[in-house]
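Weekend entry, working from home. Most of the wet-lab plans are on hold until the incubator is repaired, so I used the time to fold the two sequences that have been sitting in the queue since the last round of cloning. Logging both here for the record. First:
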Amino acid sequence: MVFTPELPAARGLTARYVLALSLVASLSLIAFISLRATITTQETTAAIVNFSGKRRFTSQRAALYALRLATADNDVERTVARREMLNSIAVMERAHRGLLDGDPTLHLPGQPSPAIAAKYFFGVRPVDPMVREYLRRIRALADLPAEQLRSDLPDLAWILQVAPNDLLEALDDLVAAYQSESEHAIRRLQRLETGVFMLTLLVLALEARFIFRPMVAQVRRESTKLQQALGYTRSIVDNSYDAIVTIGADGAVASANPAAERLFGRRESDLMLARFSALVDDTSLSGVHSVVIPRPDHSVVTADAAYTSMQVAAGRVVIATLRESTEQLKHHAAELERRNLELDQFAYAASHDLKAPLRSIASLTEWLEEDVAGKLSAESTRHLALVRNRVRRMHALIEGIHQYATATRPSAPDERVDVRALVQDIVDEHNHGVRFSVTIGVLPTLITDRTRLWQVFANLIANAIKHHHRPSGNLAVAAEPVLRDGTTAWWRFSVSDDGPGIAPEHHAKIFVIFQTLSERSAERAAGSNEAGLGLGLGLALVRKIVGDHGGVVEVRSAPGAGATFTFTWPAHLAENT
């Protein structure tokens, strides 16, 4: 029985999906360009209106100081008036030239439109000649010596006549024209943005019709294949005459079939708690060997063991196939090797594809519920929710086992870690709504594996919050140095809470993988969206990580007295913060 993917259908869906994504990306790029154009237009408009207004203001200011210059009673007043008048026309002239020719430093583009250029150079009273004449007469007035200044000068009379009338009206008219043109340009860009938005919605609707609906059918087919593959694999393993044991990267037994229970004389649950090296006198885990198996009833069995290994998401897994030694088995060693190789290849393919179908099943139930919204009975809706919860729990179990199996691998080179900042980040992540009061003491800065230290604190803090018997409570995180020869060799961290506490007889049980204190944890896990909740992996993972770093984790607790978890961590480099 062979399971093969539907490659043509998958490729067709992929091609359509890539096309849809390309269209959405192109439309997003157009929208971005349109938005940038709108922003640039608004910035340019603001600069144009600003300097148009500044030109208008400085023209009136120059006229005011021209009058003061001609009527001043002393040299000091004349000097001040002349300076302010010249400063005003300098600003006015720069704004005028920037509006006509452009000035990058002022964010002025220049090159006015034909309609605005006509106001500058044509018509009854063109603005540009008027401004230039205005500037010329102002400078001429400024060049006169003090003894020639008087209030009846022709240049002054012209300035005072033009500034509040023709010049002011012409400049105001230009400001209004600039504003009108910019508003029209912005409205045009906004219409373009609306068109792009509507086109994007259309593309998304077509994507839902021609991509996501076929995906639902594909998920149904893949779900059926997954069930068949799981059943096929389970049937092979359970009905095998040979004992089949899988061994994790840490040397512990990961699974065992019924034949293994008969061969070892132990229940599967007992085998799962043992290391393989404690069950047989063989540590090589490769090739074909004759091994001795001591049974709990004090009998001894000699068996031939064949080992194959494969790499899965959780790491390297060894498959041990064992059979009691017989002459017939020796003669058929080649056949057994072939069968083991086939099993190795199939087990690798099945384990590699476990997660993806689970995600597909969850997505399928959500899409089915959306497609028939309002048509399902309450019982059917509850069944779909139950399927999603079971899938999430299975996914969490696979992920949890993966984390546990890889916990002792270095995740990254050691780095400088501010432990206080790390703990604060974890508290912010888990203390939703700030329901718990958390006190963080003086914590060190270490050179260590950030990811592994994060996992330890995250599990301890999350457990304290999740398993608290009240909606709110108090937590405390502290640290103290452990000295050796007068230097800090270790840090002892503690996480304390005022929760329900743990009875002393359960202190050892809580650190065993897949062990929980009550059925309540499993019930919460079945109806929760939080991966790993209630699986009994958190504290087992903490103990494994801490132990791998040479430390020890302990708990001090009693019913009704809260709990304090402490663990030691190596101090390669530490300094108080």
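Second, folded right after the first finished:
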Amino acid sequence: MKWLIKQFRRLLCWLRRIFKPKLWLHPRVPSSQNHIEQTVQGDSNQIIAHMSAATAINNLIQHFHLSPQDILALESFWKNWSQDTKLHFSPSLVIGGREQERDRIISWLQGSPEPLSLQAESPEEAIAFLAAVVHSLEDEERINVLPRAIVVNSAMAWRSLILSSDAPLILIPRFPEVQGIGQATKNEHHVFIPLGRTSSDKEHHLPRIRRDAAEKALRAMGFSRDSANKFATLARRSLSALRRKLAIAPNIQQPAWAKPQEAQVLLAPLLVSAWKDSCEGDREALARLSKMSYEMLKSHLVRWANEPDPPVRKVGDIWMIAAQEDAWRLLAKYLTNDYLQSFEDVAIDVLSELDPAFELPPEERYTASIYGKVLTRSGYIRGGIAETLALMATLSYEVSLSDNITSEDVAQTTIGLLMKKVKNNADLWASLAYQLPLLAEAAPDIFLNAVDTGLSRENPILVNLFQDRTSDTVLISSPHTGLLWALETLAWHPDYLSRAALNLARLTRLDPGGRFGNRPDTSLRDIFLCWYPNTTASLDSRLKVLDTIRRQEPEVASHLLLNLLPKHHSSVSPTHATKWRDWRLDTRTQITGEEYLKGTNAILDRLLSDAGTDAARWCSLISEIASMTDEQQESLLTHLERLEPNQFSSKERSQICDCLRRETTRHQDFPDAKWAMLTEQVQRLEQIYIHFEPDDLVDRHQWLFKYNIEWPGVQHNSWEEREKMGASQLGAMSIFTQDKWVYLE
């Protein structure tokens, strides 16, 4: 009985709220006349404010005799819209850094009743943005707003709700040709008008999501750094495409432009991906592919660019596919052999064009556009075609073409023909520099074969790509960077690591040097670094590849292995990675301390094995001893103690002694430094030094007369040590042979 009375009182409060509302979101200051009335109504406000949106909707349906399909709570709309994906969309992702629009909606909610329109990619996206803003409000305000926010799906329900002046609602019409907005606001209803791209109202256009804000929101949703980075780019281009990409049931959401009768006009743009509208060469390529005039094609594209969930975008002078992977999955099935053959011809024609800028000296190439030394096609279409080739190879087994051919076959055939043109042409290699990573990703074996050929001759043509030596200008560029990026890309995959690394080793040997920091030896070091390897190959696989480099490029291998030893301070940046292939893991594998020690120990073992009787290699190892682990220091000291000095010439023994003395002095001068070796180990170095002192008296003492002599205490200006050094110098000067004074160089 008590429960029934309680429910009856709740119903009375609701009815009072329906028929005599005074307060909702922002109560007015009560006057003395109606203070009691508003206090009573305030109680009902608290009840309705805490009612669920579903309860509010049920009450409206019953009161106005509506169908459940006629109206929908904004909260229910948000749940349906945001939870269609594998990871639910968050309000922060949908707001996406568009704070100005968010603040405008909040001000509208807090102000007097009036209409507010918002144009997004589609009306649903506009409603989703409103819902995201409401869900971002503080708890108390959100609880007050949500029960009032109603999505109206039919004109009949709309007419019933706007004519009622009983309860101020937030009405969101979701049907065409909405009428009676003035009546709605007169009856104190807020009206939110969601618009799509076909609307002529550009004043309240919702801008695109900010990439940095999207990436932050995606990270908070649980995506890895790499996935968040990739999906943030897609979110900025098209939120609808991102929803399709992450949808629980991707095939359910099919846009109008993916239907057979509409898709044909989009196939040419799909294949080139991006182009410059004002570039005549780009326009001709599109006309060849589409088999229609560019103006006619453009008229179709303008239409689609203004439709909801558009497949293409135009930003300034640049046309682009809004979401390339999404569009490929939806449209590639309509590509026929004839269309693919046309694409192959156009791709080779565009990508094999020589860049006339290379006719100028490197220091003058930044002026190429002034002298008219420019490509007839833009960098956008060249890069776009290369991207398409990589995408075709990546999705070959996921997306079937209409005829009996795979998209990977098309990509490999196209790149194979292109590499034949590149084979003996250094200028074409240079012209393709910034497309090389994508071409390598599309056809790894074909690309590596071409690089093998370019490095195998007596005068390898790929050496000509190093063009950063001849000028001091900061505006110079060098095409060798594109080749390095391509090989770094391939090194991510275990199957291509060996060939990519070996080619980088050859390039290291051939590198003439230059001003750029991008060098092949740096790429090698970053790929094999034990604590941050830029490859998914296992440690054992990496060591096998290093052994291959040791056999074929021993000097390069020695320098590389030294760089892989432990360092007190070291830094690395991720190497160039794939655009489409999932060769780099979303979550980087954590390198354990055990694996790191295993790797660096194996590298030291190889260095010790390869040192032999090469004094320079032993000196390099001695200079690295302070950074090694205790176990590694012990191993190096043991090998030095076992070395037989007679294997080396007097000059080589003197060279080794110089290195030992330098290292010993450094530790004796700074015994309290964090990097300093234990006293016992320093003493062992001293004994090894004595063991290696040359028999020739001149070679033994000439170090005393060198500039910046290494003597313990000299760096600290110790007068006592300086006196000792002077006495040693005087003693050495008394050395003579065959009754002659010896001249010490």
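Plan for Monday: verify the second prediction. Strands lie at 71-73, 115-119, 149-152, 170-173, 190-195, 274-276, 312-315, 318-321, 736-737, 740-741.
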